[in-house]
Structures are given as C-alpha cells and as structure tokens.
Amino acid sequence: MEKTTTSEKILKIIGLGIFLIIAIFPIYWLLVTSFKPAKDSVTIPIQYWPKNFTFENYAAVWSTTDFPVFFKNSLIVAVTAGILTVILAIFAGYSLSRFKFKGKNITLLLFLVTQMIPIVVLIVPLFILFRNLGLIDTLYSLIISYTIISVPFCTVMIIGFFKRIPNAIEESAMVDGCSRVEALFRVVVPVMLPGIVATFVFAFISAWNEYFFSLMFINSEAVKTIPVGINMFIQKVDVNWGRMTAAGAIALVPAVILFVFIQKYLVQGLTAGAVKG
Amino acid sequence: MKGEDSKLKKDVKVRKKSPLLKESLVPYWFILPAVLLVVLFYGYPFIKSLYMSFMNYNLVMEHNIYFNNFENYKGIFDDPVFGKAAVNTLIWVFYSLIIQFILGFILALLLWKPFKGRNVYQSIVFIPWAVSGFLIGIMFRWMFNAQFGVINDLLLKLGLIQENIPFLSQPSTVMIGPIAGAIWYGIPFFAIMILAALQGIPNEIFEAAEMDGASKMTRFWKIIVPFIKPTLLVTVLLRAIWIFNSADIIYVMTNGGPANSSHTLATYLFQKAYTALDFGSASAIAVVIIIFLAIYTLIYLTVSKFEEAGDF
Q: For chain B, first and last CA: distance in Å?
C-alpha cells in the first residue's frame, strides 16, 4: 500500500527500542536491586548488574516477616472482589446490552459518573460506615470496597463483549426450554468466556493494586494486605531497599502475569466498551 | 439430568405467573444489584461527606463532635498548604497528562502497522499499566534517590548534570519524581486507546489521499487527527480526572513532603483523614474536590456529547 524507506524503518526501530527501554527499565531496576545484598545497593559506583547475586532479600522477606500472610490476604481479597464484580457485571451488562428499557441511559450515565469520583473522597464516609457495621480491620471492608470500585467500569467493559454475541444464541436456548438465567449462564457466558476472564483480571488487578482503602481500613497484622504490609518498610527512616524491592517484585508477579496473559482481550474490552462511553 | 431439566421447566412456568417477573421488568431485575450497590456506596458517602464537612469531627476526640458551620471550609481556605496543594494538582495533572498523551500517541503510531513480533512487543510495552501506583511510588522513589539513585547516576554519566540532585528532598524539584512515575504508568493507556482508534480508520481514505499525492505530514494532520479526534478528546478528558484522583504515587514517593510542598488535593485529603484523623476538614476538602470535578464533568459530557456516544 505504501512504501517505507530504509531511513523510516530505522527510525521506527529506534522508536520502538526507546519505548521498550522506558517500559522495562524501572522493573529491571527493581529486580536488580532485589538480587543485590543490601549493602551493595547503597555503594558507589552503582552496580548495573548485581556483582554478588543473591536471593537473601527474598528469603528474608518471605521467612522473617509476615509477608506470606499479606500475600495470602491480598489474594483472598482480589479473587473474591474479582468474582463478585464479574457476577454483578454479567447481570448488569446483560441487561444493558440486550434490552431497551426506560432509565437505561441514566444508568449508563450513573456508571460513567462514578468513574469521576476520587477514591479518597469515599474513604472517610466508608470508614465510618464500615466501623458502624463492625467491618473495620476485616477483609470484608476491602472486598466490598473493591467490588464497588470495579463494578461500573467492568459493566461497561462487559457490554462490549456481550455485543459480539448474537442474540440468536440465547433465544434458541430459551426456545429449547431454558429460563433466561439458564440461557445466560449455560449458553452465553461460555461463549464469551475470554471476555469474562479479561473482566475478572481487570477487577483482580485493581483490587490487588489498591492502596488507600487498605491503609485506612486495616490495622491488625493478620489482615494486612501487601500494600499495607510493605508500607511498614517505607515508614522507617532507614529504608532497606533490598527487602523493599524484593517484596515489591513478589507483589508485581500476579498482576503482571495475568495482565500479559490476557492483554489482548483486555485491550479489546477497553476499546470496545470504554471509548464509546 | 433429565429429571432436573423438567423440574426447571416447571419452575419457569410457575415463575411466569408472577407479576414481578413480567417480561418488561426483566432488564430491571438484572441490573438491580449493580445499581443498588452503586447508588448505596457512592450516594451515601456523598451525602455523609457533605454532612460531615460542617462538623467538628476528629476521631481522637469522639466525645466532642458538633456542627461548626463553615469552620472547616474557613480552615482549609486559610491553610497555605491547601493553596499549594491546589496549584500542585494542576501542575501534576497538566504535565503528566500532556507528556503521556504525546508519548502514547507516538507509541500507537509505531504499533499501527503490523510487524514481526508485534504481539509480544505490545504485551511487554504495556506492562506498566498493570503495576500499582503504590509500587510505582516505591520503584521511582528508589530511582530518584539523591545518593544512590540510578537517575542521578545516568544524568551524571551523560554529562547533563555536574553533581547529584536531591530530587525528592527539595521543593523545587520534588514534583518531577511522581510526574515521571505517572507518565510511565499512563503511556500504555493512551497507546491502547489511540491504537484502537487508528485501526478504525478505513483504508480507502488513505488510498484516496495517496492518489492525491498528499505528503505524510498532510495526511497526519488532515486525515488521521480529524478521524480520531473524538477518541482523543474523550480519553484526554477522562484521563485528566483519573490523574487528578490518583494520589498513591505521590503519597508513597514523597508523603507530601518536604515541608508539605508536594501535596495534591487528593493526598492532602488522605493525610487529613489518615494521619490527622480530622474527618471534618477531610470531608470539606472532599466536597471542594467533588464540586470541582462536577463542573469539569459537565464540561466533559458536553464536549464529548455523551448523549450521542453513550447510546450503545
């Protein structure tokens, strides 16, 4: 269609290379620091590759701190919030993509407006609400909060996936005697599974990554999630960067693996749902 | 299985009789849980914040909670840190947004035409988007470290500076660190959105332009930009709000310091609530933020013509 000159090709490769370095370098630096003995990360000249490669930071984080507990709690919270979000989003998305009804546009507007509300604004009132309900310092407070945050956006995202599935599929199932809910879960959901997984991952990652709610709502060691847990390392005057980066690297793994795994679908979902909104 | 199926069929018949399950009500039942959740958990805090913003409400003195009219508002508007935070918020949003937009746009253009290994490249270059603000804060705080930071080292090696800059511990440079982190995080967002828009441009348009002998620059400004303008507008306006609201990178990197010089409205609110336990003032800041964003959102909705685009 169009001729590309050699110089343009070279320019493009250089450009792509620069973006690759920008994307990777901070993560590379996190990993390099985590594999150095603590004292090597605070010596001059700076080592761009660990001279004395070691796993001691990881071992220390995993066995001398409560990090495994934090990790488990984060996992419980993110998985539960992800599942709850997906269920609510499937129902809402089904309704919004398959029916015309009064109040539909208002609902979409409502969901869009929630995207404009800062999380920090919700912190004080939700703190008081959860305290009255006796949920402060429990994982429930986080599960509920993260589900609330993710539902509007994930609903919009899942609408995009619903639209790719023809109505005929569930109609024929209903003719065969399935109820609507059965048709939805036995016929439609399996077909759009990649989209549902992508939605789950989106909700999982937002829950996994959230910081302020967890800091505000959680106090006891036993129910701390990763961000609150690692926060103790930062608040100390003398930050141990070896430990810190090792903990950070472990925290990075689930989100990044899931993201890379379903990146294609996530991109589809985002562009199908969000841009149009 | 068969028995179960016929039982379900019977269920369907029984249900159809109930007026609550009329066909016209079906969409409402499906959407009810999500709407209820949203209305309850966004609506309640909204009203509660407004209410509390007129109260002397400090968690440390819970026996001493009373209405104090506009004291909280007077307090924050007299507070120099609040003013500073408001200015910082604008700086934070403006620079983060404009740079990540330009870089994201360039990346999208680079990714537009297929090349070998594009999928793998894409999944690597988009990774920052999966990293939490909290972790970005840690990574960039370490990279911007005054003594052992890799950024100082690289700048020295490149001859761009003569001695280390204590980026995060002096007010004049402190915002650079978090903004760099925010840009790193935000490039993939724009790249993804703009790439999708680019791929929606029909090929015929280019062929026609090529026949007319339009240069690359002309094609960029006369075809590409106008065609994807709606996407650009919507993503920029929406992203501005998200950056406005994201406070974790700053909070982790600087904690608002040194000497409160790097607070934005969002981090300042969190500090009032979390550290000072002054829920009254925190609520007043929340109300100010909501009013500001409400005005902004109205502009956003008008500009992006939500009514048209929102009809899925």
A: 38
Q: Bridge-partner residues for B278, per DSSP?
A: B58
Q: Which of A19, A110, A245 minimises the CB distance to B142?
A: A245
Q: CA–CA separation, A90 vs B277, rounded Å?
A: 38
Whole-prediction pTM? 0.87
Q: CA of B300, closest CA in chain A: separation in Å?
A: 11
Structure token pair of residue B126:
């988009």
Instruction: Give yes or no for a contact between A248 and A34, defined as CB atoms under 8 angstroms apart.
Output: yes
What count of residues does chain B have? 312
B299, B309, B34: which is closest to A107 by C-alpha? B34
Query: In the block, which residue shows the tokens 């982190």?
Result: B181
ipTM of this complex? 0.87
Contact A212 B247 (CB under 8 A): yes
CB pairs under 8 A between A and B: 288
Choose from B24, B25, B30, B62 for mutation: most chain A CBs within 10 A: B30
State the Cα–Cα distance between residues A226 and A230, nearest whole angstrom: 6
CB contact at 8 A, A55 and A36? no
- Residue A141, Cβ neighbours under 10 Å: how many? 25
Q: Which of B271, B297, B295 is nearest to B282 (CA)?
A: B271
pLDDT tens-place string over residues A223-277 = 999 988 888 776 666 778 888 899 999 999 998 888 888 877 766 666 654 443 3
Nearest CB among A26, A33, A118 relative to B245 is that of A118
